[in-house]
């Protein structure tokens, strides 16, 4: 069955995705392909002298919120000095036991608040057991 969530332009099929928590819970054990594309904006202008050198943005898809373990997918982007909108994508395959969940995390070292914008997505598809 295909259901239409309250948010414009989004849909999901199957019971695994919880739009409130942002978690995908595996209905059965198996290999899942995960994908996320986040459109991330600085929510306030950079202050003069606020350097971007060393500023990076990590986007992770983690199992059971354990991002320090090896069971995660990760993309690291350097935040340049030009522009206030960034697009970061992460795609890969993770093995989940039945009942385990995966979710997206953003690690911000930019020194200014960031907001995930409309048009971002997160998906999970069972590949096989």
Automatic annotation (TrEMBL):
PROSITE patterns from the UniProt entry: C1Q
GO molecular function: hormone activity
GO BP terms, alphabetized: negative regulation of gluconeogenesis; positive regulation of D-glucose import; positive regulation of insulin receptor signaling pathway
Keywords: Disulfide bond, Glycoprotein, Hormone, Hydroxylation, Secreted, Signal
Gene Ontology CC entries for this record: extracellular space
Matches recorded under SUPFAM superfamilies: TNF-like
C1q domain residues: 1-129
Main location class: secreted
Location in the cell: Secreted
Family assignment from sequence similarity: Belongs to the adipolin/erythroferrone family.
Name of the protein described by the UniProt record: Erythroferrone
Native source species: Thryothorus ludovicianus (Carolina wren)
């Amino acid at each position: 069955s295909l259901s239409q969530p309250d948010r414009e332009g989004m849909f999901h099929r199957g019971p695994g995705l919880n739009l409130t928590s942002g978690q995908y819970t595996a209905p059965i054990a198996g290999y899942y392909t995960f994908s996320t594309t986040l459109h991330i904006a600085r929510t306030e202008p950079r202050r003069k002298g606020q350097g971007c050198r060393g500023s990076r943005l990590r986007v992770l898809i983690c199992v059971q919120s354990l991002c320090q373990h090896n069971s995660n997918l990760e993309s690291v982007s350097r935040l340049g000095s030009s522009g206030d909108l960034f697009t970061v994508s992460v795609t890969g395959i993770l093995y989940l036991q039945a009942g385990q969940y995966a979710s997206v995390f953003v690690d911000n070292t930019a020194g200014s608040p960031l907001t995930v914008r409309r048009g971002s997505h997160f998906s999970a598809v069972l590949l096989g057991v």
